[in-house]
Design the sequence.
């Protein structure tokens, strides 16, 4: 909430679209600590996502689909001093709230994220984790599936997430790094491997790099999003 003084310590904001199968775990991982509010922002689910969220005590909002738009709406409705943006297929680590408070207590730290952990035993997933955590620590470039956290006041000063169809998390992190340090917490989230399993590890990795390159070269985000959807629709290649 941009106006007024935050009353709760942490607001966890979960954008969702047809996530009834796994969102209960995400909500439960956020709600197990005191002083935390959970806000699920639904983008028009056709399943029981909203019903599950309400049953677990989360505040629910409905807005037009679009992850950036949904997260901004959740932030507007929040009352916390700190904001945590959690994907609906991701589980926060135990004691995440105390870690967020501790890291953001430092004046030089403007934001942070958790180490990436991916469900599944494939060795290729371990390499994905290592690469993501190296990038996050040394380049200060965590992605949204690592549960970004930031002071609410700074989030609103920066204008929140840009209303982009893709790369909205990268855009926000780049703006944050101009204001101070973006740190990597030692604890790990656990995110679903469904994206890598559906497209294949190699294709997913290459597609992510194409999106990053296109963003850096100034390619239209809407053209990039269309390209991503087309590439993601092809049958996966055996690896």
Sequence:
């Amino acid at each position: 909430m941009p106006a007024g003084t935050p009353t709760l310590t942490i607001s966890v904001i979960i954008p969702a679209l047809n996530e009834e199968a796994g969102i209960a775990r995400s909500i439960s991982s956020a709600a197990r600590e005191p002083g935390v509010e959970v806000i699920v922002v639904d983008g028009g689910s056709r399943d029981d996502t909203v019903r599950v969220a309400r049953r677990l005590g989360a505040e629910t909002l409905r807005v037009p689909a679009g992850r950036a738009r949904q997260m901004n709406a959740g932030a507007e409705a929040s009352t916390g001093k700190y904001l945590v943006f959690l994907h609906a297929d991701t589980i926060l680590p135990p004691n995440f709230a105390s870690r967020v408070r501790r890291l953001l207590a430092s004046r030089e730290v403007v934001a942070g994220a958790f180490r990436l952990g991916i469900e599944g035993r494939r060795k290729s997933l371990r390499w994905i984790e290592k690469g993501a955590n190296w990038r996050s620590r040394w380049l200060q470039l965590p992605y949204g599936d690592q549960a970004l956290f930031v002071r609410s006041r700074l989030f609103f000063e920066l204008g929140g997430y840009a209303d982009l169809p893709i790369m909205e998390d990268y855009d926000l992190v780049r703006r944050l790094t101009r204001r101070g340090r973006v740190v990597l917490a030692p604890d790990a989230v656990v995110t679903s491997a469904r994206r890598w399993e559906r497209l294949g590890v190699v294709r997913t990795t290459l597609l992510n790099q194409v999106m990053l390159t296109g963003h850096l070269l100034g390619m239209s985000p809407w053209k990039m999003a269309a390209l991503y959807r087309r590439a993601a629709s092809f049958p996966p290649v055996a690896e």
User: Anything to note?
Assistant: The chain has a mean pLDDT of 91. The longest helix spans residues 123-138.
